[in-house]
Amino acid sequence: MSDKYPALETEIDDDIQASEDVGGSDFLSREKELLGDEFQTEQDKEVLKESEDEDFTEFQEQFPEVGGTHQVVQEEEDDDEGNVQEQQDAYTSSASQLEGESPHIAEWKARRELEIEEREKANALKKKDIIAKAQTSIDDFYENYNTKKDESSAEVQKEQEAFLEKKAGFLKRGTLWDRVGELISEVGDVPEDDERDKSRLKGLLEKLKDKENAPGANGY
Predict the structure, then answer these.
(1) Which H helix or E strand runs over 4?
(2) Domain map of the chain by residue range?
(3) Residues 50 and 42: beta-carbon distance below 8 Å
(4) Is the CB of residue 175 less than 8 Å from the CB of residue 217?
(5) What is the DSSP letter of 37?
(6) Nearest to 211 by CA among 173, 172, 184, 177
């Protein structure tokens, strides 16, 4: 019974499956196969091209190429290097601004340089004054020294002349024993000596005074 009258469900399932296969096929491809290029227009070509481009783009996004991945990584590395360079440039700019002199620092430096210049001028004047005073002192010393030396030399010369004049006059007076007696008188009393009696010698010399005929009265 079942062999003569097959189940309706099988036929219906086959029809539904066939219908699904037909509906799932590409409508434009089937039309192109049936009609060929006779009724194909430029608009159809653009539609097909856009569809293919969209499919290709979607495929590339899902499955990127190895080279493209490397390029993306390289671009990311370049971006990172660019960011690092920008940060370094910003840091350098900030450091330059910090290193730059502020108005207060510039004013302080100018004031300090002015103070140093004034102090150097004052030191130079003081040094010049000290040198001038030292030179004056040296000149005064040598001038006084020379003056005193000349005065001393003149005084010594005068004393020498007076001594020689006195000596000449002394030698011209009387006999030798007269001059000896004069010297004894200028010397004064001779100190006493217990071992020797000098009074006898003094008495003898006084006796020879004013005697031109005494031995040695003429000096020889």
Answers:
(1) none
(2) 8-99, 103-159, 173-220
(3) no
(4) yes
(5) T
(6) 177
Residue 142 pLDDT class (50, 70, 90 cuts): very high
- The radius of gyration computed from the CA coordinates of the chain, to the nearest angstrom, equals 73
If one counts every other C-beta atom within 10 angstroms of the C-beta of residue 214, the result is 14
Buried b (16+ CB within 10 A) or exposed e, 6-17: eeeeeeeeeeee
pLDDT in tens, 27-64: 566 666 665 555 555 555 555 556 656 666 666 666 65
| 9 has a pLDDT exceeding 50 | no
Q: Give percent of the chain with pLDDT exceeding 90.
A: 26
The model's pLDDT over 186-206, given as tens digits with 9 standing for 90+, comes to: 776 666 666 666 677 777 777
Residues in the chain: 220
Dist. CA 207–CA 181, nearest whole Å: 9
Find the distance separating the first CA and the last CA of the chain, reported in whole Å: 210
E strand or H helix that includes residue 157: helix 103-172
Burial annotation 105-124 (CB, 10 A radius, 16+ → b, else e): eeeeeeeeeeeeeeeeeeee
Strand ranges for 65-166 from DSSP E: none
Q: How many CB atoms lie within 10 A of CB 206?
A: 14
90, two tokens: 């910003």
